[in-house]
Amino acid sequence: MDAKKVWNVFQDYLVITLGLFLYALAWAVFILPNHMVSGGVSGISAILQYTTGIHMSYYYFGINVILFLIGYKLLGRSFGIKTVYGIVVSSLFLNVVPQFVPEDFINEFSLQNGKLICSLLGGGIVGLGIGLCFNRGGSTGGTDIIALAVNKFRQVPPGKTIFILDIFIVGSSLFIPQDGGWGLRIANVAYGYMIVLVCGKLIDLTISGDKQSVQFMIFTKTYEKMAEFISNDLHRGVTILDGQGWYSKTPSHVVMTIVRKNESAMLLQYIKQIDPHAFVSMASVTGVYGKGFETIKSKKKLL
Asked: I need a surface site. Which of 119, 167, 188, 194 has the fewest CB within 10 A?
């Protein structure tokens, strides 16, 4: 393995470790002190901790090991070393990180600010951590293994399975023994669902944040200059479409291109400079594959 590959692997594990640390930190600071739960294996582990008093990290590790073995048996070698690393390190962080967070800090930053703020911050940081892991090919194991197994035999979309499991897991926290009436229990379930929703949103944003693209349709008489700038300066592909204005009945040309979201401001500035009267349509797009964008990844050949 050459130096570049070693450096890339090191970067992957560094980012995965950071994501797992944020994941554990969110549980230690925001979720566990407020007696709240979330979805997935971590939610099950938290419920078991509240019920038995045994720290969730032990349940988390044990359940994930069982799921990993089941997934390995049913799905084959689709779980790599990064999944094993994620399960082990996240279990370790869940156990160790709370010991280094001062109680005064948790009280002032978490408990005194209420469960609403904590569910938003906790869910967001958990989602950010998981998203960082996913971006580097890592995983924390969990219910996604169940979802993949169900999908293999029943053709149920994994996202639907995970969503149903999360609803059931968070809803079951309604029966956790705790001080307070049913109002408090129902409120905790509501906060749990909020954590799940915020977490899912942050995972999506983290995964696709640097991959968001924008499609431009530029109606301008200076289409040649526009195309040259996009091709030579932005290094993006350009397609010139022939059109006709229906009102004026005159031929026209439309410049169509797709650029990264962070390149759109530069293109808009250039359009304003070259043709302030240009008519521009912008649309956010996902799943852009080809040169300069993403590569279609397929493990199996259809034919």
From this structure: 167
